[in-house]
From TrEMBL:
Protein name (Swiss-Prot/TrEMBL): FAD binding domain-containing protein
SUPFAM superfamilies noted in UniProt: CO dehydrogenase flavoprotein C-terminal domain-like, FAD-binding/transporter-associated domain-like
Pfam families in alphabetical order: CO_deh_flav_C, FAD_binding_5
Coiled-coil boundaries: none
Assigned keywords, A-Z: FAD, Flavoprotein, Oxidoreductase
Ranges of residues in domain FAD-binding PCMH-type: 1-176
InterPro entries found in the cross-reference section: CO_DH_flav_C, CO_DH_flav_C_dom_sf, Diverse_Substr_Oxidored, FAD-bd_PCMH, FAD-bd_PCMH-like_sf, FAD-bd_PCMH_sub1, FAD-bd_PCMH_sub2, Mopterin_DH_FAD-bd
């Protein structure tokens, strides 16, 4: 199939783009990379009256390091993020990028576009949620910021108004003593994840702060604090036994069962996804902990 007919505009400023979108009264769609929207248009699952192409909007193609965050503009390609040295200050983002589709898709797709699309099996919304990124939103009333964990409200549903545009996502720079882990299981590389996990561990003296975010397991990224589970395993000597992932798998059993609430489908049942997620979560949380510990040891040397 081919897309239904639509009008096309290409504004050169963010204010003009917002105005064009508002003028459609909910019948317009914003396009930047088009890697999510174009297939939907081709299958006629969406029939917008107008496409607002923001690729010519000045200033949206910037990656900025300031005030402890890396701000990625709405038209920055995923492939650029994958290679830009500034983005190495957000290790979890860099770790996730190779899992996003294929290289050709990442050459056109944008980080902000993936976040705005809010596919529950997508990697970048999960990363944003795990590190507590801020989603910058431009609308007729000006700019506002929403934490990623509050931005996603359901499957392909967000806190974005019909006359608003995601103009940037702000990822916090990794602090000393932070470690990360990321993995997913898919039928083939580039396919949607059957289950995936992003893990963050922050060590500060005797304080342990651990977070897991799952994707492909619910109607949105699901984030839970798992500090108590990690501390229990560490205090029991699990970090020294070489069996930390096995111990964590048992400790995370209840948490994993609660986080995975998606119905089964042709690809995997709910119970199978729970087993996948539990295994991935334990492994990546263990990696994140040891990376955080190694970072502290390097700083103290």
């Amino acid at each position: 199939m081919k897309a239904a007919p639509f009008a096309y505009v290409r504004p050169s400023s963010l204010s003009d783009a917002v105005a064009e979108l508002a003028a459609t009264e909910g019948e317009g769609k914003v396009i930047a990379g088009g890697q999510s929207l174009t297939p939907v248009l081709a299958m006629r699952l969406a029939r917008p009256e107008t496409l607002i192409d923001i690729t010519a909007v000045a200033g949206l193609d910037q990656i900025v390091d300031a005030d402890g965050v890396v701000e990625i503009g709405a038209t920055v390609r995923q492939r650029r993020v994958e290679r830009d040295p500034v983005c190495s200050m957000v290790p979890l983002l860099r770790a996730a990028m190779p899992w996003v589709g294929h290289r050709e898709i990442r050459s056109r797709g944008t980080v902000c576009g993936s976040v705005a699309h809010a596919d529950p099996a997508a990697e970048l919304p999960a990363v944003a949620s795990c590190v507590d990124a801020g989603v910058v939103i431009a609308g007729p009333g000006g700019s506002r910021s929403v934490l990623a964990r509050e931005f996603f409200t359901g499957a392909m549903m967000t806190a974005l108004g019909q006359d608003e545009i995601v103009s940037a996502v702000r990822f916090p720079v990794a602090a000393p003593g932070e470690g990360f882990g990321f993995a997913e299981i898919a039928r083939r590389h580039g396919d949607f994840a059957l289950a995936g996990v992003a893990a963050r561990v922050r060590l500060d003296g005797e304080t342990v702060d651990a977070v897991l975010t799952g994707f492909g397991i619910s109607d949105r990224p699901v984030t839970r604090a798992v500090s108590d589970e990690l501390i229990t395993v560490v205090r029991a000597g699990g970090s020294e036994s070489g069996r930390m992932a096995d111990d964590l798998r048992e400790a995370l059993s209840t948490v994993a069962d609660e986080m995975v609430d998606t119905d089964g489908d042709a690809h995997a049942s709910r119970d199978y996804r729970r087993r996948l997620f539990r295994t991935l979560a334990a492994r990546e949380l263990s990696k994140a902990y040891h990376r955080a510990r190694s970072d502290i040891d390097e700083v103290n040397e």
